[in-house]
Design goal:
single chain; 360 residues; 64% helix; disordered C terminus
Length: 360
């Protein structure tokens, strides 16, 4: 690797860890907590939350499916339009995608609070079952997120949403794309939510809470330290795992990829858990709750949008690549050090595209 590539990769990772990652968590924190407060304010027990949680999950899932199908449909219409129209349409669609993604996760988390509940065996069972199914169907890499994976707002990224079987309107029947998108969210993405919920609550209640590093920043600094350590471990071993050959043995290759994917999952989860808790303490703590959540929502979205990476706020699921890459935080190496590039240039001609695989 050349010195220039090394510097760009270092800048990419630093920008993801210190800017895009926290902005993504900031948006989700404000939106998640606001929706939770609205939906469950008068429902203090988990057992009483099942109905609004189910409604939120169904609304979020349905809207995510409709937004993805809208992206597929609008691609051929907008590809020859002006950059202003493309940019405005992309902003609206990405915002709706991100918002209803949070709605889906709020509903999913609270359904799991109702059943199986917060006993250690229920949490462990959900984590193991969901992880096992995702590994069997080769979709466990979808559990990854920032800081190891970001998505930039190029036209091709926004209007080629991920789905499990990689179907597109351009090369598949419409009903196949619809069924693929439904399967991706109702099955694959729901299993991702189960993985995150199980591990998040195990850490909250049984693993990290008894050995917190500080008293004030409860459930915060320990996760941040774990996350940063795991991020650098994944960065260090990523190339070695990618370059494994068939001669190394299929079992060894699969085991190494699965182990690295699990480390990437833990790195992302602890990053979110730690940064989220730190924001609870340090993001304008004297501000009233609703003003704080609204500011968190707005700053998180606008910050990522101005950086050209608001697509990072969205959550999608897809089948693992045959040659998995657990690092997809390219930013400066894509845009260059001189600033943000025009996402919509060179789109005046139709071109053949392939599904983008940039999440782990």
């Amino acid at each position: 690797m050349s010195l220039r590539s090394t510097i760009q990769s270092t800048l990419d990772l630093g920008f993801s860890l210190l800017c895009l990652g926290p902005l993504t968590v900031l948006f989700w924190r404000g939106t998640f907590n606001a929706i939770t407060d609205i939906a469950f304010r008068d429902l203090p027990t988990f057992s009483s939350r099942w109905y609004p949680a189910l409604i939120l999950y169904l609304i979020g899932t349905t809207m995510k499916i409709l937004v993805d199908l809208t992206k597929h449909s609008l691609r051929s219409i907008l590809i020859n339009k002006g950059p202003c129209l493309q940019s405005f349409s992309s902003m609206i669609l990405v915002y709706l995608d991100a918002f209803f993604g949070v709605v889906m996760w709020v509903g999913g988390f609270n359904l799991l609070y109702v059943f199986p509940g917060l006993h250690w065996y229920g949490l462990t069972g959900v984590l193991l079952v969901a992880s096992s199914i995702l590994m069997v169907i080769k979709a466990f890499n979808s559990t990854g997120s920032v800081p190891l994976g970001i998505s930039t707002d190029e036209f091709e990224n926004v209007y080629n949403p991920h789905n499990y079987f990689g179907t597109k309107f351009e090369n598949s029947c419409s009903y196949k794309v619809i069924l693929d998108t439904i399967f991706s969210y109702t099955v694959v993405h729901t299993l991702v939510i189960c993985c995150w919920w199980g591990m998040w609550e195990l850490e909250n209640r049984y693993i990290l809470f008894p050995c917190e590093i500080t008293v004030k920043d409860i459930q915060a600094w320990d996760s941040v330290i774990i996350s940063y350590f795991l991020v650098f471990v994944v960065v260090a071993i990523n190339n070695s795992v990618k370059e494994m050959r068939e001669e190394d043995g299929q079992f060894s290759k699969t085991a190494a990829a699965t182990f690295t994917a699990f480390l990437a999952f833990l790195a992302a989860l602890n990053f979110w858990r730690g940064i989220w808790s730190l924001m609870d303490f340090y993001f304008f703590p004297s501000m009233s709750l609703w003003n704080n959540l609204l500011l968190s929502h707005v700053v998180g979205f606008l910050g990522t949008y101005v950086a050209g990476s608001s697509l990072t706020l969205t959550q999608s699921s897809e089948k693992d690549s045959n040659t998995p890459d657990f690092l997809s935080f390219q930013y400066w190496s894509k845009y260059g050090a001189c600033g943000k590039k025009n996402h919509y240039e060179d789109l005046d001609q139709h071109s053949e595209t392939t599904p983008l695989v940039n999440e782990v």
